[in-house]
Write a structure and sequence with these properties.
heterodimer, A: mainly beta, six-stranded mixed sheet, five-stranded antiparallel sheet, 11 strands, 0% helix, globular, B: mainly beta, seven-stranded mixed sheet, four-stranded antiparallel sheet
Chain lengths: 112, 114
């Protein structure tokens, strides 16, 4: 059974204070690890897909990295508008049709 | 380009009432999904449809039925609503045949069962 564990559950940062969010996963045959951002009252918004260990993707102040066991979402010099819940998901097992399995998310608050 | 559209956005039901949540996507995706999101539980898969004409159970299917009406539309039905079905419901779609296989989500339906 595919599983995703995210830590910490909540993170409070001062504006400009860099940090990382962790996503640990167990999956048979990783077919993609996905990061989403979710604002209150909204649906998840896609950020990145990583497919193989060693891969990195960047977007503005966010950088996602992947190893064989976990992924990190690094946030450099965050701003208050980066406050959101960040979700990690994997697609594995039987192939490209397999639904995404999500972690419970990390709730990030960035204080000015 | 609307993406994934869900209706209604909010709904209050009495225990035992039935209703159908509607979802439509205009991205020509083959696969569609229904998730529910509860505090502290994350997104959990209810049902999915890998392609038109097929549906499969997810992690939490009890109390729900689905219909893949055509390639664009995938509905979720609650036959006899229970307070435990109070949740936020998200529909999503993806296309596994493409290079990028991420799922795109609607804005959600917030359902309260009293």
């Amino acid at each position: 059974e595919d599983q995703v564990t995210q830590s910490p559950e909540a993170l409070r940062l001062q504006e400009g204070e860099s940090s990382s969010l962790n996503c640990s996963y167990t999956v048979s045959g990783l077919r993609g690890l996905f990061w989403y951002r979710q604002d209150p009252g909204k649906g998840p918004e896609f950020l990145f897909t990583l497919y193989s260990a060693g891969e990195e993707k960047e977007k503005e102040r966010l950088k996602a990295t992947l190893t064989k066991k976990e992924s990190f979402l690094h946030i450099t010099a965050p701003k208050p508008e980066d406050s959101a819940t960040y979700l990690c998901a994997v697609r594995g097992t039987s192939g490209r049709n397999t639904p995404l399995v999500f972690g419970k998310g990390t709730r990030l608050s960035v204080i000015a | 380009n609307a993406g994934v559209t869900q209706t209604p956005k909010f709904q209050v039901l009495k225990t035992g009432q039935s209703m159908t949540l509607q979802c439509a996507q205009d991205m020509n995706h083959n696969s569609m999904y229904w998730y529910r999101q509860d505090p502290g539980m994350g997104l959990r898969l209810i049902y999915y449809s890998a392609s038109e004409g097929t549906t499969d159970k997810g992690e939490v299917p009890n109390g729900y039925n689905v219909s893949r009406l055509n390639k664009r539309e995938f509905s979720l039905r609650l036959e006899s609503a229970a307070p435990s079905q109070t949740s936020v419901y998200f529909c999503a779609s993806s296309d596994p045949s493409r290079v990028n296989t991420e799922a795109f989500f609607g804005q959600g339906t917030r359902l309260t069962v009293v």
